[in-house]
Design goal:
This protein has 304 residues and is α/β, with parallel strands linked by helices. Helix content is 52%, strand content 11%. The protein has ten helices and six strands. The chain has helices at 2-28, 32-65, 73-97, 128-137, 156-171, 183-195, 222-225, 232-240, 243-246, 288-303, and strands spanning 114-117, 141-144, 176-181, 200-206, 249-254, 272-276. The protein has a six-stranded parallel sheet with strand order 2-1-3-4-5-6, sandwiched between helices.
């Protein structure tokens, strides 16, 4: 479903670009190529402007939550530029191109199999570069698509459970590691609280709103309502979790996260927290430094 939504969205934007290019040509006598390039730049500029507003808001909320944290302009600009590229890559290409086929997978039995869980308004296509990197390390890889797109997070429990069992059956492994981006981390926490963690060696969450995000008040869907700060669902989830389960988690946060805000508070008691800077929210799924942190957590679980 997510892939079809994105195809429709991209098609609508493409039609708008062509109509704008024709208007620039007919009404203002622009050269056809220049008109097309100018019209094509409009969605990019709009995306950059929206992201810029998010980064400004995130910086303001960060200062309120953690006034001791100060980062330079260079890190903020790096995060903004990286997020522009990552967002365009994700919503205009990756999820359409890779969202309809299995991800790359390795076959080294010495490596922990890895299940990948995407975030809000995404599908498993966002993971393609990371899955290829994991496969090169030898990890068997699988992924799930959380459907319906705007459904409640508790409905994801069965989907994640099926993904874990599918990966275990394929590899013969007793346990798998789970890596989740954004909202996917909450879905994994709901799975662990409901089904236990016997089959899970480690969980790594990237930019997950463990304590809710201020921007959730503007989103759509039952799952967005469950990501509002201090909401009943988050409180109930925390009350159901065992301390032994929290010890499985490595929480990766970026202080320049533009979606999960304020980012500085997004940790879990009893979990290991990795703090980075200069990366936006979507970029966390593509960044090689983040991948290295994930691999270290998985390898540590294997040694344990």
């Amino acid at each position: 479903m997510m892939r079809r939504l994105l195809i429709g969205l991209v098609a609508a934007i493409a039609i708008g670009v062509l109509l704008l290019a024709r208007w620039l040509h007919d009404a203002h006598d622009w050269h056809p190529l220049l008109a097309l390039l100018g019209a094509s730049a409009v969605p990019v500029v709009i995306d950059a402007a929206i992201l810029g507003q998010q980064f400004v808001l995130a910086a303001w909320l960060r200062r309120r939550a953690r006034p001791d944290l100060r980062f330079g302009t260079a890190a903020a600009l790096r995060a903004w530029g990286g997020e522009i590229v990552a967002s365009l890559r994700t919503f205009f290409y990756a999820q359409i191109r890779h969202g309809a086929r299995p991800l790359p997978s390795g076959d080294d039995p010495a490596r922990v199999p890895v299940l990948l869980v995407h975030g809000y308004f995404c599908n498993h296509g966002i993971w393609y570069p990371f899955a290829r990197w994991l496969a090169a390390r030898g990890h068997a890889v699988d992924a799930v698509d959380l459907e319906p797109v705007f459904g409640p997070l508790d409905g994801s429990v069965a989907i994640i459970a099926a993904g874990i069992e599918r990966l275990r059956a394929r590899t013969g492994a007793a346990q798998v590691a789970v890596v989740a981006h954004s909202m996917g981390g909450l879905a994994v926490r709901a799975f662990v609280a409901a089904r236990g963690h016997d089959a899970v060696a480690a969980v790594v969450t990237l930019g997950t709103p463990h304590r809710g995000t201020w921007l959730a008040r503007f989103g759509h869907g039952a799952n967005v309502a469950q990501m509002r700060p201090d909401c009943d669902w988050l409180r109930a989830l925390a009350a159901r979790e065992a301390a032994t389960a929290r010890a499985l988690f490595t929480v990766v946060i970026s202080h320049h996260d533009n979606i999960v805000v304020p980012a500085a508070i997004q940790t879990l008691d009893g979990a290991r927290t990795v703090e980075i800077t200069g990366r936006g929210h979507v970029e966390l799924a593509y960044d090689r430094a983040v991948w290295s942190h994930v691999a270290a957590a998985i390898d540590a679980a294997r040694r344990d």
